[in-house]
Amino acid sequence: MGTYRKQIEIVGDILYAAEELTIDQDGASITKLIQKANISHSRISKILSNLVSQGLLEQVDSKRACRYKISMTGKDFLREYKTFSEFTDNFGLTI
Amino acid sequence: MEFLLENILNLVGFIIGIIIGVFAYVGYKNTGSPVLFRLTIAFIAIGIGFGIIWMGYVIDDVYLQEGKINRGLQALGLGIQTIGYFFIAFSHTIKSFFPKSRYFRSVGILPLFALSAMNIEHIIRSFSFILLVYGAIETFVSFLEGKQKGALAVGTGLALLAFGEFIAWYSLVFPESILYSVSILLKISGLISLFLPISRLPLRKIKFDDLDDDEEDMKFDDLDDEKFGR
What we know:
The complex is a heterodimer. Chain A has helices at residues 7-21, 30-37, 41-53, 72-90, and strands at 4-5, 28-29, 57-60, 67-70. Chain A is α+β, with helices and mostly antiparallel strands. Chain B is an all-alpha fold. Chain B is 76% helix and 1% strand. Strand 1 of chain A pairs antiparallel with strand 1 (228-229) of chain B, so a sheet runs across the interface.
């Protein structure tokens, strides 16, 4: 039986993917984020705009397509997400 | 001796409960996770429960000097602790706590009014025991699935607390035996085991200064509730 991710887990996976894929100033393409975070295109668009509005991701202007890179706030959030995810894991729970 | 051990146990329980509760609260404030919210309530309640009993012992030691804690105060502290244990069990999706039948529910409440404070203490201890066993089993199951050492420590902690609660209840049958002291030592070991994995996590102040309050309140609630398969 498949397991389902909670919203916060999906957000964590997207930020994690963005951090992994942000190797230079260009940021990561939506396609790469979709593959890495394992999420559909229709769903990721709304989440990405939400994350950008909250300052966790930054949209990078590119001639080719929309690209995203993780912001400093996003990195802080991701670090705390990992910490508290481990905290809840210790209780046999998922964040 | 028992008086001293009780003081140590309740002080340790108060400190550990509040530390874990505050840590969970910081996590809840920064992630908005309902699981962390439930753990906050659970550990703050456990901490307050231990704190009330500790205060009862201190009050007796300093002012009353009767050599025993006020039974009502002890029942109150144990009751609040049980609420905390309930929220840990509830986080593991406990489905029903009280019987569904209206008749049984009404009958089930009656003893709370009819029995003495001593008997209420027994009832509360038995509830605590059941909830702790449930929490321990669920945590052990998670350990078997994920092989995470932290889950093993927490599961062992909850199991030791449950065993300590059981021995404490059993010691009422043999009041002059060593059982009560053993139960206190078991519970102290359980609390320490519960705290071990949390102590390894970085306890630091978390800040999101560049997010204003409205944005922070927004969190991720406005995303669809629809789940997405991995």
